Amino acid sequence: MTIGSEDVLACRDLCVSLGGHQILVDIDMQVRRAEAVALLGANGSGKSTLVKALLGLVPISAGTVWLFGEPLSRFTQWQRIGYVPQRGQSSVANATVREIVSTGRLAHRRAFRRLSATDRAVIDESLERVGLSARAKDPIGILSGGQQQRALLARALASQAELLVMDEPLAALDLDTQKSLTELFGTLTSDGLSILVVLHGLGPMAQIIDRCVMLRTGHKVYDGPLEPSDANGTGGHHRAAPGPEPYLPDPGLVRPLDTGEGH
Ligand SMILES: Nc1ncnc2c1ncn2[C@@H]1O[C@H](COP(=O)(O)OP(=O)(O)OP(=O)(O)O)[C@@H](O)[C@H]1O
């Protein structure tokens, strides 16, 4: 089985079982270079599990994952991937914000070497980009939830990865911050960064998402582009939480149900 030369991430027939239950069933998907793909679906549909399986963080029961063209089992270039886990999964309360962001540079440093001037500049710029420069010396544990999320994003930015995998990165962030980070992600994808992002609602991210993959009870039920009318971001919540009725594989499902505009 071959994968596309532009694919930075791909999986075929991916199955995951946890605790005796099959969580993901025969998932095929890919993320291409410079593409931003949203992973959508109701609570418990398997989005986080899929992301973790793609990164080798949970065991795969069947199927294959490729990262940058290498099978997951042989992949070693983890510096090419930045991962922003779901909030609350990676807090180290006593570390300072700067220390957390500095760990994003680990893959670039040689063992036992201090941070280089380049490392420090990248860390400073990453803190600046998420608006946390003034909080750099604070222990991360005293920051608000949204500020902690920004620190995790800064760590991913500091890694200068080619693929960012993010699990609800904008949850708990105010709208202005969501917009400015979306703008930043848009600039980075224009420069060749690829993004796979778990979202509950598209919100401002609709502006930069090229394609969405929707899961329902562990099955992929949609993989396609956003409709042009989705670019205003109003449709995401409807898209992210399909109702209990049988799924119709119709891209119309990704159309906003209520744009709030009168007739
Ligand atoms: N370690 C585990 N053992 C057993 N079941 C698990 C485990 N991890 C996840 N699950 C189950 O897998 C299903 C999918 O969970 P997952 O966290 O992937 O969903 P999600 O789509 O990311 O949900 P949410 O939108 O609520 O974050 C859920 O029913 C969950 O209970």
UniProtKB/TrEMBL annotation:
Q: What EC class is this? A: hydrolase
GO MF annotations for this entry? ATP binding; ATP hydrolysis activity
Q: SMART domains per the record? A: AAA
Q: Where is this region: Disordered?
A: 225-263
**Domain ABC transporter per the UniProt entry, residue ranges:** 9-242
- EC numbers: 3.6.1.3
> Keywords for this entry?
ATP-binding, Hydrolase, Nucleotide-binding, Transport
Which CDD domains does the record cross-reference, listed alphabetically? ABC_Metallic_Cations
Q: What is this protein called?
A: Adenosinetriphosphatase
* Organism this protein belongs to: Propionibacterium ruminifibrarum
